[in-house]
Amino acid sequence: MHLPSYRAHASSEKLVIFIHGFMGSPDHFDDLAELVYEHGCSTMSILLPGHGAGMREFVNSGLDDWTRHVQEEIDKVKDRYSAIFLVGHSMGGLLALNASLVKENPVAGIALIATPLKLNLKSVYLKLRLITFPRTNEIKRAYIKSKSIGRSAIVFYPRIMRPIHSLFQLIKQIKQRLPEVSVPVYLFYSKSDETVSYESAKLFYEGLCNTERILFPLDRSWHAFYYEDERSIIAEKLLELIA
User: Fold this and answer.
1) Which of 44, 68, 178, 221 shows the shortest CA–CA distance to 229?
2) How far is CA 169 from each of CA 59, 166, 172, 175, 180, rounded to the nearest angstrom?
3) Predicted confidence band of residue 188 (pLDDT cuts 50, 70, 90)
4) Entry pTM
5) In which band, very low, low, confident or very high, does the pLDDT at 77 lie, cut at 50, 70 and 90?
6) What single-letter DSSP state applies at residue 87?
7) Engineered SS bond to 142: which of 82, 99, 130, 225, CB 3.0-4.6 Å?
8) CB–CB of 78/106 below 8 Å?
9) Which of the four pLDDT bands, split at 50, 70 and 90, describes residue 150?
10) Contact 189, 200 (CB under 8 A)
11) How far is residue 16 from each of residues 19, 83, 144, 150, 214, measured CA to CA in Å?
């Protein structure tokens, strides 16, 4: 089951909100959310509209639904916390940046994990290779866990262009507004990401010209699978950001 979650830490004035990516799942953040909670922060993992169900629901969702839902979730809790940190994987990072531009949101920092400004369209080989992996393979298991869109009747699949168009709309909008971002941003990008081009890291670093930003390059990890040593880097630096 792909479900949203909210765990309030009684002694914390800080909240960390995790936002998954395109066709992704809150399950992608289970370990990071648990770590953050153990270190005294409240956590929230959002399930975006159209996700957690089948293709029928997914193709009827889009940019307005996703941005509105993120803001509605922040509105529910923003009066309880003095600082909110946003962690976004892939498209979730774009939604995090968008939410940080709402002045009423007490966003104190953002972590972007494999967030796209440019897609890696040359890595067909890696995508095909992933398909051939057995379900017992640790990389394949990670991708199965992080995908929340179930199977539906084939008639709905051609309509996937609507959410895809929304993703590219969001990329374009955020790219134009990067100079407006004023909170610290930590960037985590893998040079082996088969979906998001590593050049996105450079584009973000240059575009976020009016705030503190730090890039943490990774070498071996995939888009939705992170080797333990590189996942530890993300965990360590995330705790540093919210400290």
Assistant:
1) 221
2) 16, 5, 5, 10, 18
3) very high
4) 0.95
5) very high
6) E
7) 225
8) yes
9) confident
10) yes
11) 10, 9, 24, 27, 19
CATH number of the 5-242 domain = 3.40.50.1820
pLDDT band at 154 (very low <50, low <70, confident <90, very high): low
Q: Could you give the CA distance from residue 126 to residue 139 in angstroms, rounded to a whole number? A: 12
Contact 114, 90 (CB under 8 A): yes
Instruction: Give DSSP secondary structure letters for 117-161.
Output: SSB-TT-HHHHHHHHHS-TTSHHHHHHHHH---B---GGGGGGGH
Distance CA 38, CA 6 (A): 14
Q: Which two tokens stand for residue 176?
A: 């134009």
pLDDT reported for residue 132: 82
**Each residue's pLDDT tens digit, 20-68:** 999 999 999 999 999 999 999 999 999 999 999 888 899 999 999 999 9
Report the alpha-carbon distance of residue 197 to residue 106 in Å, rounded.
31
Report the C-alpha gap between 92 and 80 in whole angstroms.
Answer: 23
Q: Where along the chain do its domains lie?
A: 5-242
Amino acid code (one letter) for 215: L
Q: Where are the beta strands (DSSP E) in 131-236?
A: 185-190, 213-218
Cα–Cα distance for residue pair 1/47, rounded to 1 Å: 11
